[in-house]
């Protein structure tokens, strides 16, 4: 009998994982406590924008014409407990309000809700990003709460998917990391990944704490790389250098590499910012806070870039925002996503609005979420409408649509042909040739 799989939590991670497991031939039951989400998923609709996910989901959701029928959804833990041989926990671990630590309440609730229904040998696999030490503690709770006792085992299997590439990253991971406490758990996970998913991907087995640390250290490294290049952008600005050329040149050294060296208004989203903060908080609890003090600097360089973008904009419009119209292109924390969590673009837009600027935002996919989070900002339905009458245009999320804009057409409707590129993603020559004053972070003005 092929293994039956449940996926608990149907956000970016869980919805993608559930659909991917069905694609690989497993019978899958997805669980979420929000009934509206489950209703949407059952109709084959994805509650967020993630390229390729809806198509993948519709290929498998039961009841959809032509689907494999291998994927169903529920809100019932009882049903999930009875169904699954392997349960993947994919719930969110957001930052606690007003604290650095992460909020483990969704993970705790998921374990406490599932455990009473684990009556036969099962494997629960944590995928959420958690503070190191959580897996060992959760394994004990599982044994204590599950009727199956020690036959209800735990493994930790961190997920490294990027939003915007969730389907591709899940179906073709660059590594599979598993933290286990028994051979049986390792064997079961090998069985799950002994599918096309694992082909060509190193399968790395380790203990619980190391597997938890792999995830937080990987994200810390990525955040550090971005803040490093943004620190170089600050120095370039002071010295008259060009950070884009600098990044290109240092990136040719394979030990450094070209990726994640794009200077701009920095990182945001539901992962990197909260993960480095939670990592610092956890290190403090463990008495290892000194080891991670550099992450404090990584965080502050990152936040400083947002403030710097606001300052540059203020200078560009003559020193004050009152009566000035500012067009903002981009609201999401990165392109190809509708996610606005901790979005640098919206943070900059919000600061300018608070300082009296008249801000109009346009984003290809993030408008609904942006409106919900920042209802007082102005919004337009197209880039052209957003820039109409603008004294300055800010490019804050590097969507392809923005790179393909015609500066000539936009130039006809703005009040001033002035653009600040907060992502170093537009072609300066193209804009300058069309009569715009183009300025970017970390680059000389002309
Ligand atoms: C990240 C990790 O990449 C992923 O492995 C992990 O599983 C979850 O966290 P994600 O949050 O989807 O993924 O976004 P990512 O592509 O890492 O970008 C994060 C932020 O960094 C974005 O705001 C992006 O604009 C910014 N960034 C990225 C830069 O400012 N410069 C860069 O060179 C790269």
From TrEMBL:
> What residues bind substrate, as annotated?
160-163, 215, 260-264, 268, 334
Q: Which reaction does it catalyse?
A: UDP-alpha-D-glucose + 2 NAD(+) + H2O = UDP-alpha-D-glucuronate + 2 NADH + 3 H(+)
Q: Pfam families in the record, alphabetically?
A: UDPG_MGDP_dh (PF00984), UDPG_MGDP_dh_C (PF03720), UDPG_MGDP_dh_N (PF03721)
What is the species of this protein?
Answer: Streptomyces piniterrae
Alphabetized InterPro entries for the sequence: 6-PGluconate_DH-like_C_sf, NAD(P)-bd_dom_sf, UDP-Glc/GDP-Man, UDP-Glc/GDP-Man_DH_C, UDP-Glc/GDP-Man_DH_C_sf, UDP-Glc/GDP-Man_DH_dimer, UDP-Glc/GDP-Man_DH_N, UDPglc_DH_bac
Q: What class of enzyme is it?
A: oxidoreductase
Record family assignment:
Belongs to the UDP-glucose/GDP-mannose dehydrogenase family.
Q: Where is the active site?
A: 271 (nucleophile)
Q: What are the binding positions for NAD(+) in this chain? A: 32, 37, 93, 129, 163, 274, 341
Q: Any idea of its EC number?
A: 1.1.1.22
In its UniProt entry, what is this protein called? UDP-glucose 6-dehydrogenase
